[in-house]
Model the fold of this input.
Amino acid sequence: MVKINLLPERPEAAIWRKLEEAVWIIWFSLPLAVFIWAKLAMNFK
Done:
């Protein structure tokens, strides 16, 4: 998705971009966290 930025950035636009970044980080780290948790759960059985 390409965003064309015609206007100077508004504060809320910066907040949205930070939020989007955080969502991507969570989205990518979630499978990793589940995988690690599953391995730990196997070890404690």
